[in-house]
Amino acid sequence: MCGIAGRILQGYGAVGNDLVELMDAQAHRGADSTGFAIYSELCETGYKLRLIGFSRPHLDSDLDDFAHILRTHGADYLAEPVIDDSPDRHYSVRLLISEPTDLSHWIQDADLISDRIEVQSLGKSLEIIKDVGDAQMVADKHGVRELAGTHGLGHARLATESSVLPTASHPFWARPFPDVAIVHNGQITDYYSWRKRLQQQGYRFMTENDSELIAVWVSDQMNKGLSREEALSKSISAIDGVFTFMISDNHGIGFAKDRFAMNPLVTVEDGGELAAATEEQAVRRVVRDECHVVNYDGPSLTQTWAVGPHTVAA
Amino acid sequence: MSEVAITVGDRSIRTINQEIQAALADGHSVRVKDTLSRHNLGIGLPAGAEVRFEGSVGYYCAGLNNGATVEIERNAGWGTGEAMASGHITVNGYSGMSVGASMLGGTIHVRGDCGPRCGAAMKGGDIIVEGKLGYQSGFMAHAGRIIALGGAGASCADALWDGQVWVLGDIESLGVDTQVVEPEPEEAASVETLLAGYGLDDSAHDWRKVISSQRLWYFESRDASAWLMI
Fold first, then answer.
1. Which pTM does this prediction carry?
2. Which residue of B has its CA nearest to A260?
3. A279, B58: Cβ pair inside 8 Å?
4. Do B37 and A284 touch (CB under 8 A)?
5. Residue among A179, A178, A189, A131 nearest A155 (CA)
6. Cβ–Cβ of B135/A288 closer than 8 Å?
7. In this predicted structure, what is the pLDDT of residue B224?
8. What ipTM was reported for this prediction?
9. Candidate CATH numbers 3.50.50.60, 3.90.1150.10, 3.80.10.10, 3.30.70.600; the one for domain A45-123
């Protein structure tokens, strides 16, 4: 039993604060870890990176090695790394980098030191902030309430399938596809066989979390020519388990729900904005007035919502 | 009986429920305001109580009802009236998953549609849905009636044990081990009498009554495929 949330604002605004509210209201669904995917202003050149390192005493040498690999791929830092100053052993880094010559080759090489420092997200707009603890703890530690953007996702995790670790928290980035993230409520039962097939195609999974599969699976389907809507529909018959997941990129948010209809999703669309959560009472944190609520309670459902002056794209 | 207004807002649900119970014990009726779709409001309400929730409520509203009359002005979340023993609950809007789950008696009246597994494992009482029943309505119900005036979603009455699902309009598909039978005139009259209390009766109603085929009452391995319909 996890809790998920999505938010789209009509323009650039306090999406971080809204997502913290949506997740704080659902902290009782799981407080092992909490995470956020925030879509902030597009960078014209290069990428935004979020990293987690596992041993703070080795921070300097980890970053030196990370930068060295980056430089061998023709890229470099565009600004000084921003590192959290908590007393925790693991550390979080925000980086701006110029464009590597070949993104997927660089990610493969960067992952050679992923036992020390691991890329959590990469994108022109996407930043994934995740850590152990409930929404308030993660928001306070990483300043999530202050993060502005157009849209994003949130997740509260009750760990079932794998360890409670910062890196095994949601949202998951669809390695190596820039700007794609997912959050998942449920449990995938055939993830091991799917992962094996995707690994044979060259994809790399960093955790033992079942949900990590979904991000890569959907992106791979889209890479093979399916639209996002088609990939979401296909996931319902192709992936086994119980799930309601949301997937986001620079253009919007989509969701899919399994055949068993066990994991709810509630949405309010109001003035070109979207608030979505597992529980209606969470949505009411950001839409206080009585409003038209849509309950995606049935089986085998998908929907997508576009960012910007948008209409529902069925 | 004077009315007491209690505000929910961001306050503790335990405190609010204690205030509701105290007001009822003093002989008042209760109006609950600013509900913000929050969970577990009005649990274990006593016989004779009258409670009205303004706006929408979250999960398990009026669960374990023990004879109170409850009205929810708008929508309700999961498990409304779960395990209620007696009394009456009206949901004026949509009622989420598992409305009336495990209820033992009393009535629940939903004016809108309801979510999946309405009346799951119910053991008595009646659920009247003016709109459409969700997926797997009456899932493993042991007794009682679910009465839907606006059709039923897929897998209707799935694995029904010994309850009844009465439907007007389309049934998207039937669940496992179910059959549609012609109701006896006195059974239909009993349903119409119940509906008359809400002004919903009509002698022209063309009911389909869904009951268990009783094939899965005793599991045998040769029936395994019958369970694997989904």
1. 0.91
2. B230
3. yes
4. yes
5. A131
6. no
7. 74
8. 0.85
9. 3.30.70.600
